[in-house]
Design a protein that fits this description.
With 105 residues, this protein is mainly alpha-helical. It has one domain. It has four helices and no strands. It has helices at residues 10-19, 23-35, 48-62, 66-86. Helix 2 crosses helix 4 and helix 3 (48-62) packs across helix 4 (66-86). 34% of the residues are buried. The mean pLDDT is 92.
Length: 105
C-alpha cells in the first residue's frame, strides 16, 4: 500500500476543488495522499502543516493541469525544497497560507 501521511486538510481540499473539476478532483486527492505524504524524502517527523505546505506548492505549480501536477509531484519526490522555491514558498514558511488559485478568489 502506498505511503499516505496525514489526510488532506480542508484548505488543501478547497484549493484542489478550485483548480480541478469532476473526476479529476478525486484523482488529484489520491495523488496528493499517496505521493505527497510519508514517502517524501526527509519527512520522517513532519506534521500536517508541513505536508500541507508541499501539497499547496504542488497544486500551485499544477495550475489545474494534470500533466503539470505530475511534474510537480515528481519534483516534490526528488527534492521538495526545490518545489517550495519554484512555488515561491521557500523563503517564508507561511507564504502558502496566503495563496489561493486566482481564478477562484
Amino acid at each position: 500500500m502506498p505511503a499516505q501521511g496525514p489526510p488532506l486538510t480542508p484548505g488543501t481540499r478547497r484549493r484542489l476543488e478550485a483548480l480541478f473539476c469532476g473526476d479529476d478532483r478525486e484523482r488529484v486527492a489520491r495523488q496528493l495522499l499517496e505521493r505527497c505524504g510519508d514517502g517524501l524524502p526527509m519527512t520522517t517527523h513532519w506534521d500536517e502543516s508541513q505536508f500541507e505546505r508541499v501539497r499547496y506548492a504542488v497544486l500551485k505549480l499544477s495550475g489545474g493541469d494534470l500533466h503539470e501536477l505530475e511534474r510537480a509531484i515528481q519534483l516534490a519526490n526528488w527534492d521538495w525544497r526545490d518545489l517550495l522555491m519554484a512555488a515561491d514558498f521557500g523563503h517564508d514558511v507561511t507564504a502558502h497560507e496566503r495563496w489561493f488559485p486566482a481564478a477562484a478568489q
